[in-house]
Amino acid sequence: MNPYIQSLRLRTLPLSMSGIILGSGLAYSATESIEGGEWHFWLVFVFAILTTLSLQILSNLCNELGDAQKGTDSDQHQRAAYGLQAGTITVEQIKGMIWLFVGLCVVFGLALIYCAFGSLFTLQSIVFIGLGMLAMAGAVMYTLGKHSYGYIGLGDLGVFLFFGLLSTMGAYYLQAQTMSGEVFWCGAAIGLPCVGVLNLNNIRDMANDRAHGKRTFASLLGPFGARLYHYLLLVFCLLIFILTGHYWVALIVPVWVWHMWFVGTHTEGLDTQMPVLMFTTLIVAFLALL
């Protein structure tokens, strides 16, 4: 695979779209709340997807650079090496890619806000510009810098806030320009399996992370605790959706039961479960809209 494409980590992209699809779909179902009609809805939706994909790729690139600079990626036997670790991309090249996606985040984000509110200078627009800047900072500071929050056990919280609450509630508000308690709970629910993906990644890399001073939440919990935490994330996701009346998500239970069994009984091959959880999280977002 082309090393530039590999560093984008395309398999992670479905996960980043889950909250946008869920929030937008919930807004679409409230047809009386949609501002501007069908054409406007799809325009805002497309720019929201482009913005979140750019943010996800920006986070992936910064994660690769940050881990490489700290030496954390020096021994990753359970997955394929990315560009910097494999030596197929230089630091300067990946920095160039980072600046490219910073620019795309800004362009797509401003276009999204303008389409949603018709101006970049309303109070709503300024608030969302601030949220966009916060999301970009979160993408960059996860592993980059001396005070990267991914190295002090706060990565799970960051994923929950950005992939769950902010993504879902933000997408809903951009479309409906109102908010509801249901949207909050749906955002929290979809954020939990997103955290599960990060937790699974950290279970896989636990020994390596500890050896290089990376204190993830999983490494603080230990192998047994991290697996129990993983199960609870998925169970509470399902419970929240079912208790808020989104019963179709129960269709994912057989796949998640098998996934939890695999995680609980295997120490090798956990990387194969990453796409399983990513794509099923996206499916859950669609099921919640039925």
The helix/strand series, from N terminus to C terminus, equals: HHHHHHHHHHHH
The total of beta strands comes to: 0
Termini separation comes to 37 Å
Would you identify the regions where 5 or more consecutive residues have pLDDT less than 50?
A: none
- Main sheet record: none
Outline type: globular
Average residue-wise pLDDT: 91
Give me the Rg, rounded. Answer: 19 Å
Put simply, the count of helices is 12
Strand content: under 5%
Alpha-beta content class:
mainly alpha
Measured as a percent range, the helix fraction is over 70%
Characterise this structure.
By secondary structure, this protein is an all-alpha fold. Helix content is 74%, strand content 0%. It contains 12 helices and no strands. The protein has helices spanning 3-8, 13-29, 37-70, 83-86, 91-117, 123-141, 155-176, 181-204, 206-211, 217-243, 253-265, 273-287. α2 packs antiparallel against α3 (37-70) and α2 (13-29) packs parallel to α7 (155-176). It is globular and about 55 Å long. It starts with a helix and ends with a helix. 45% of the residues are buried. The mean pLDDT is 91.
